[in-house]
Specification:
single chain; alpha+beta; 15-stranded antiparallel sheet; 42% helix; 21% strand
């Protein structure tokens, strides 16, 4: 047989025992559960760098079956770990065991039980290619092997895969092992940032009605943080927050349960207030609040009735009023309160001596004529004339009780019903004659009926406006409703919330009154929760604006050396133009503002190629961006030129089935919401509506150099205010962002419910400069290359391998 030189080399490689080094990461687990990692140059199993793989579901093995088990190089096998029986298995990306690992020479002479097929494997690691002998690892101590370069990065990726681990204890041990195993790795800072985000995220989730069990889980991560980073002040502060909150909640639960057992219902209602924000995980404690309000209302009503029977009217009214506050919709309590008020006023009126004019005297006739004129003017809605007539009547007899009735009717006609009712109370305390009291009673009935009719109409209107997202109109209507009845729960909430939204100084006072008033059986707990959140926002310090150059899209100042805005993921440096296949895009700037992108095509082929990108909407490559006044953030974007400068629109949130809730301008175009707005408080709007952050990109993957259309996204942020994810509208596309500090390092895109990204982009840096990006979609790949002149970025080349159009795009910097 004749061998060529190349075939001899191939044969030598094939038979050499260490010709295929299995460089990668090995993890070992001690009997006490500690996990440690180390880099190795080679792994051998039963003296070989190859193994056979038996499907995990195999029920029976014959010698013929064994011949068909595939052989795999350990360098290509992915991830190996031991299962609960200390058997070596291969696991997929979701952590699910797929195959049992068998020796490469596995060849049974007779049928074998799959459970015994592996036997006790000899697992050997080599720290160097020159080593002739390796270190044997017992299967009981073997934890994991991951083939590949950069063992610290392999370990970091592994410890963040929750599905890979048999329990949380095991995952936490692996995380602690990563820190201990790679103390000098720069990735240790990334892990620390991830740990901080995980703990802060746990606090935030619990603050937003998350389950208490998840907060207890966050405590486990704080314990890890204290062990792994004992001198870190930020992690220490977060840990203290978690532990303090848990202690407070446990102490509050014990206190509330003790008060309930003692029947101290009033004390329980008061003690519940600090706990209310965290009540959602504790239905049994929420039930105690309900019971306390019911029992307190019953107790005070019973006391009120007994005091009324003893004619202790003042004390009776106090008790019945307290009962009514606890249970505002209780008709029996309302009836007892009205009856006791009537009896009390009549008792007081018997001692009153109202001033009367001599019957038939000129003063008496003039007084009665003025009252008549005032009544007719009210009927004719001529309120200035009614004021004048009342003034004339007051000049004749300023202490006459009748003036109170007419004045009350005039106030009600002006929709100031709440001011009218106290005047009628004063009238009832001044007259004892049945006919005179009937006059006041008639006026009271008219005013109460009209008040309730208008209150109902206002409530319906407020609900409709909130449902429609018309917050500018909601603000005006809430102010009108509050003038009708300043003590109405709903009106206080809407007026307080909209005042906070538009930064009106009366917001705190109105929200405080709402929270005091709605602490009752009628008060809606979710609405109270929103009020608490908004009230807290009014006391929170405003974020400090960092130094830097405002990003053209978000308007947020971005520091030098940061190439992607942490709020919008928009590229920071200004682009002058982009040349693609038979097209040119010109970027039109006004200082730091990008006003438009104008595209021209060399010929029809260029236009067809551009349209083949399949961008969003009716894009022809022309994009226009509108700013509001001096605000540096883009407000609206369009594929059509704006007819006029952007004005200050009414604040409106669109609620339609086709898109997530979002702000719109007067033409219905989506408004971007990336940070605080000079027009309104974005945090308050989020408390009312839920997340509304909205951004745009020129494509589905936030590639800043390819604009195939306007793609809209609903955005979410991490605890450090950086863009965490973006869900594209009308598309099965969720984009996630990874940051190192404020530097964007990776973008991944996922399909619905898939844990594996279908698109990935990695961004590389050298010192302070961005040097390149690589991206992939399936088997298609692309590169973004940055070309510098000294330290100045001159040009960017996008060499697309089919992810977009498979062409080269050249970017000139401004």
């Amino acid at each position: 047989m004749c061998y060529t030189f190349k075939s001899l080399i191939a044969l030598a490689i094939a038979v050499a025992p260490c010709a295929f080094p299995q460089a990668g990461l090995i993890g070992q687990k001690s009997p006490d559960g500690q996990i440690r990692f180390q880099a190795i140059e080679e792994l051998q199993i039963e003296g070989s760098h190859r193994v056979r793989l038996m499907p995990i579901a195999t029920q029976h093995i014959t010698p013929d079956d064994a011949k068909h088990f595939p052989q795999k190089e350990l360098s290509q096998i992915g991830t190996l770990r031991t299962d609960s029986n200390h058997q070596l298995v291969r696991v997929d990306d979701s952590g699910r065991p797929t195959d049992l690992v068998l020796p490469d020479n596995f060849a049974p002479k007779s049928p074998v039980d799959p459970a015994a097929a592996q036997g006790r494997l000899a697992i050997q690691t080599f720290q160097s290619k020159k080593s002739k002998t390796g270190e044997l690892i017992a299967p009981e101590q073997f934890f994991v092997f991951v083939a590949g370069a950069e063992p610290d990065r392999l370990a970091l990726n592994l410890v963040n895969r929750s599905a890979f681990f048999a329990s949380l204890d095991e995952q936490l041990a692996a995380m602690e092992g990563f820190v201990a195993s790679f103390p000098d790795s720069p990735l240790k800072a990334d892990f620390r940032a991830q740990l901080q985000e995980r703990i802060a995220g746990g606090l935030s989730a619990f603050d937003n009605h998350g389950p208490y069990g998840d907060l207890l889980l966050s405590r486990r991560y704080t314990e890890l943080a204290r062990r792994a980073f004992p001198e870190d002040p930020a992690l220490g502060q977060l840990s203290t927050q978690v532990l303090t909150l848990i202690r407070t909640l446990e102490a509050s639960r014990i206190k509330l349960q003790s008060l309930a057992a003692s029947g101290e219902w009033d004390l329980l209602v008061d003690a519940y207030l600090p706990f209310e924000h965290y009540q959602w995980s504790f239905p049994e404690i929420m039930a105690l609040r309900q019971t306390a309000l019911e029992e307190s209302a019953h107790l005070h009503a019973h006391r009120g009735v007994l005091l009324a029977e003893r004619q202790a009217n003042t004390e009776a009214l106090q008790e019945l009023t307290r009962a009514r506050q606890r249970d505002p919709d209780n008709r029996e309590i309302a009836k007892e309160l009205a009856t006791t008020s009537l009896v009390a006023s009549l008792a007081e009126a018997k001692g009153a001596k109202p001033h009367t004019l001599p019957a038939g005297s000129p003063q008496d006739l003039s007084f009665k004529r003025s009252l008549h004129d005032a009544e007719r003017a009210i009927q004719d809605k001529d309120y200035p004339k009614a004021d004048a007539a009342l003034q004339e009547a007051r000049a004749e007899n300023k202490d006459a009780p009748e003036l109170l009735v007419i004045q009350a009717r005039l106030l009600a006609a002006r929709d100031r019903h709440s001011e009218a009712l106290p005047l009628l109370d004063a009238y009832d305390r001044a007259v004892s004659d049945p006919a005179a009291r009937e006059l006041g009673n008639s006026a009271r009935n008219d005013i109460l009926y009209d008040m309730e009719t208008k209150r109902t109409a206002f409530r319906q209107q407020l609900l409709r406006l909130q449902h429609d997202g018309d917050y500018t109109k909601l603000r005006a209507t809430a102010a009108q409703a509050l003038a009708l009845d300043p003590e109405d729960d709903d009106f206080l909430f809407y007026s307080g919330a909209t005042a906070a939204l538009f930064r009106d100084s009366v917001a705190k006072e109105r929200l405080d009154r709402y929270l005091a008033k709605s602490n009752s059986l009628r008060g809606d707990l979710l609405t109270r929760d929103r009020a608490y959140r908004i009230r807290a926002l009014l006391n929170s310090p405003k974020p400090v604006t960092p130094a830097g150059t405002p990003n053209w899209l978000s308007g947020w100042p971005v520091a030098d050396g940061i190439y992607y805005c942490p709020l919008s993921a928009a590229f920071q440096l200004p682009i002058d133009g982009i040349t693609g296949y038979k097209l040119k895009m010109a970027f039109q700037w006004d200082r730091n503002r990008l006003n438009a992108i104008a595209t021209t095509f060399d010929d029809e082929k260029g236009s067809l190629n551009y349209r083949s990108l399949g961008g969003a909407g009716d894009s022809q490559g022309n994009f226009f961006f509108g700013y509001l006044g001096t605000d540096p953030q883009v407000q609206v974007a369009s594929t059509h030129q704006f007819d006029s400068p952007i004005g200050l629109p009414e604040l409106r949130v669109a609620h339609d089935a086709a898109t997530p809730p979002h702000l719109v301008d007067e033409h219905g175009l989506p408004r971007l919401l990336l940070r605080e707005s000079p027009q309104f408080d974005a945090a308050v709007l989020t408390a009312l509506e839920g997340p509304l952050a909205t951004g745009i990109a020129g494509n589905s993957f936030f590639n800043p150099f390819i604009w195939d259309g306007l793609h809209y996204f609903s955005l979410s942020y991490d605890s450090q205010g950086r863009l965490a994810s973006a869900r594209e509208w009308n598309a099965d596309n969720l984009v996630r962002f990874t940051w190192s500090g404020d530097r964007l390092t990776e973008i991944q895109a996922f399909r619905k419910e898939s844990p594996v990204p279908y698109y990935q982009r990695t961004i590389s840096y050298s010192g302070a400069m961005i040097v390149g990006e690589s991206y992939s979609l399936g088997t298609k790949t692309g590169q973004i290359k940055y070309v510098y002149s000294g330290k100045v970025l001159q040009q960017v080349k996008v060499e697309d391998g089919g992810v977009h159009d498979g062409k080269t795009w050249t970017v000139r910097m401004h």
